[in-house]
Design brief:
alpha/beta, 11 helices, 53% helix, 13% strand
């Protein structure tokens, strides 16, 4: 069963989400509190393992930044969902860059929050309107959306290796390498930086610091 922690400085929000989680059977709410520091003290004092998913308010009242809060929770071993009024896209981007897997609006139905918990518990990013709004027009953040595997494949392929050699180097199937390159191209199109050819992929990899300017696409 998914273990869930709810961190929000509004008790009514915590109570509502806890009731929704219990009603849906999505998981067990193991902690509710108003700050990340309080949650980490609870972990230390009780010896409890990290929550699988933490639903975290974007802006808490203790002075900690959202990036600090997310980084601490991710380092501690939890997946993080940002629960936000969605009117501060820069802060949301900071949270996503720090490792949060998604954002969901506080105006969303509790059923949608529960569905988000299920998604994030599987280690998947939320792909919703709030996420799109946060990253829209922010090229620096969008560039970071390649997965670690996609970056590895792109780095080797753009540097000149044939796709078959890339697959062998990384110990993956050729079909997997090909699928990764396809996803990379799609992601670059989505942020307005299409890369239809291998030379274009090299340019994008250079722009994003994945390969040096001396690389040669063959």
């Amino acid at each position: 069963m998914t273990r869930v922690a709810l961190i929000d400085d509004h008790e009514s929000v915590r109570l509502g989400l806890a009731a929704a989680c219990s009603r849906s059977g999505v998981g067990e709410v193991v902690f509710t509190g108003s700050t990340v520091a309080e949650y980490l003290r609870w972990r230390k004092d009780t010896g409890e393992s990290p929550a699988d998913v933490v639903v975290l308010d974007l802006m808490l009242g203790d002075g900690a930044t959202v990036a600090e809060n997310v980084a601490q929770l991710v380092w501690d071993g939890s997946q993080v969902i940002i629960h936000s009024v969605a009117d501060r896209p820069a802060a949301v981007r900071e949270a996503l860059s720090a490792g949060a897997l998604g954002v969901i609006s506080k105006s969303a139905r509790t059923d949608d929050v529960v569905a988000a918990v299920r998604t994030v518990a599987r280690g998947e990013h939320l792909d919703n309107v709030e996420w799109a709004s946060a990253v829209d027009g922010d090229r620096a953040f969008a560039d970071a959306q390649l997965s670690a595997r996609e970056r590895d494949v792109l780095r080797l392929y753009a540097a000149g290796l044939p796709l078959k050699a890339v697959a062998e180097r990384l110990g993956i199937a050729y079909s997997t390498a090909k699928e990764n390159i396809t996803r990379v191209r799609v992601k670059y199109v989505e942020v307005g930086r299409p890369a239809p050819t291998k030379v274009d992929l090299l340019r994008r990899a250079m722009e994003d610091g994945l390969v040096g300017e001396a690389s040669d696409a063959r």
